[in-house]
Amino acid sequence: MADRRRITLKDIARDLGISVSTVSRALNSYSGISEDTIRTVKAYAEEHNYVPNTMAVNFRKNKTLTLGLIVPELVHYFFSSVISGALAEAKKRGYTVLVSQTSESLSNEIYAIRTMLGSSVDGVMISLSNETTTSEYLEELIEEGRPIVQFDKVLEGFKTPKVIVDDFDGAYAAVEHLIQQGYKKIAHLNGFKQVTNARHRLEGYQKALKDYHLEQPEEYVIHCKDISEEEGYRYTKELMESANPPDAIFCITDLIAMGSMKYLKENGHRIPEEVGLIGFSNWDMANFVTPSLSSVDQHGFQIGEKACQVLVDLLKSQEPLEDKTYLIKTSLVVRESSTRQSNV
Amino acid sequence: MADRRRITLKDIARDLGISVSTVSRALNSYSGISEDTIRTVKAYAEEHNYVPNTMAVNFRKNKTLTLGLIVPELVHYFFSSVISGALAEAKKRGYTVLVSQTSESLSNEIYAIRTMLGSSVDGVMISLSNETTTSEYLEELIEEGRPIVQFDKVLEGFKTPKVIVDDFDGAYAAVEHLIQQGYKKIAHLNGFKQVTNARHRLEGYQKALKDYHLEQPEEYVIHCKDISEEEGYRYTKELMESANPPDAIFCITDLIAMGSMKYLKENGHRIPEEVGLIGFSNWDMANFVTPSLSSVDQHGFQIGEKACQVLVDLLKSQEPLEDKTYLIKTSLVVRESSTRQSNV
DNA sequence: TTGAAAGCGGTACCAC
DNA sequence: GTGGTACCGCTTTCAA
């Protein structure tokens, strides 16, 4: 490896016959330096291809202009959108981003946080793993003076800024849409009761039904254990084979909806005529399946952008962490699976 | 922000009444230090929660244990798999990863490289943007002694290790499979002629046909301009409306295949009975569409892993960059779209 | 086996 | 407006 030694401030100072401090000030265009000196120094630096040694600067300033970003899953439409948004915003603000994934495991999460600390990121954006129920490991970061912003999957009791999807509103809109399409027996495949997002979506579902005086029997809400296609299939089967099958299903994620759709198609239930179907997350595949799947878009890109923005603002302002929640609105994407040609 | 000052080597030395260098050596378990000292120092460090200041270490050692990873697109099944693999391998080797995306733009790519240099990554893994035709910006990195490993979309003439998909082999397998399923008139929706991956897939297609004595007319190969669903649709229409329509189509990516499938379904061409269809990339959605799409899996995770492994080995060995190519084998995933029930 | 001390490349404070 | 210099925290050479 070449490793052609870079030119340093000292070199420039020597060659120009001035002091190191003057060179430093000139390059940073400090006030109290003559235009002349600035020009000379900058020209010389340019010509000799001077690049400041970031490690030295970081070390001296105790700042790295690097942010940490921790997600549960990387190969995932929503989270890759979040990362994309965070990267875009970070770039705008002059930061770089260290990415880590926890695969929904607490031990990986702890490791990631330690690594971030070790790499001296200035602050961290994190979406917690499903296993995380305490904030003690995260406190370490804060103790080190590295602010945290939580997004998507957050710990309510942990006092940091939070950027989350407006799950309640999204679920409400989805169910309201089904109602407006004339569906009257609307079931809901929900997730883990403990997970905040799941709870909010359930509440949105219930509120919409209540507002339209269409309360449903208890059996119409099923809590999935792991969010998988298989579960969507299995619970849809359960619902459809029950004495009182629904005429529409609101699924907590598109993956569940895929399983649901599979069952319905295999068993000759026509979508959307006989059964309406709607998902949540608006994966790329929602467009490509047949019938195309209506879904609630969570605007992952915006969430990443916002989380990064809040974090950088925090870094600049030096204010203490505020326990503030930023809700990002969803939007309903209506496709074939919930659109009845007739009765509306 | 709290910023509770961390304890330093100097603190430990003072409190223990020994010298800083001894503390440093003890903590790093250097030889030539008494077991006793090591134990005492480590215990004290542990107790007082000593964490070395990474920025100082980086500065001193001129190493960051951070790698750069540059991809054209982030919200993309293949690339997020690559990132996932690279992160996993990096973690194993004790490195962290700075991620950047170029959105297929050369100027973004240049910016990303500069940023990586600025952040003093030890080395970089990169998949080039479509706009990149010269390596001059990349040379900068190498001049700084930061090795590069290219993956997926590479510049042949740029002498660095390369980790790429065995496109030729994957295409060959796909076409061979179609032939074995009894298809005889196999068309190919290819990509940009200039792009290496596209060329290799075309060659694989041609070789398979040749080996089975099934050479096809020139009109059976169409070069898409931008890889989009619309193009898949448009060119499939062109093919099917021609005087001599094919009975199978090998698409350069799953996205093209989606457009193709859309056209075929809309126009009553039954898949796979009348027309066989096969894609390349094996997106998550290939499973969920109807009929499910046969596709060539590119093993993105493995590519990321391998790229990272090669890079770290390079970093450790300090050897000069070798112009070596690592081919990652694909695997054919056969699903409904290419499986004729009858004649095989 | 240990200590003293010289930096790594900047920044910023204090003089002049 | 400029120069001198201490120092950030750690590693490493040299000497004892």
Automatic annotation (TrEMBL), chains A, B:
A GO molecular function held by the record = DNA binding
What is the residue range of the signal peptide feature? Answer: none
**HTH lacI-type domain spans which residues?**
7-61
UniProt entry keywords in alphabetical sequence: DNA-binding, Transcription, Transcription regulation
Q: Which InterPro entries match?
A: HTH_LacI (IPR000843), LacI/GalR-like_sensor (IPR046335), Lambda_DNA-bd_dom_sf (IPR010982), Peripla_BP_I (IPR028082)
Superkingdom: Bacteria
Q: Which PANTHER family match?
A: HTH-TYPE TRANSCRIPTIONAL REGULATOR GALS (PTHR30146:SF109), LACI-RELATED TRANSCRIPTIONAL REPRESSOR (PTHR30146)
Protein name stated in the entry: LacI family DNA-binding transcriptional regulator
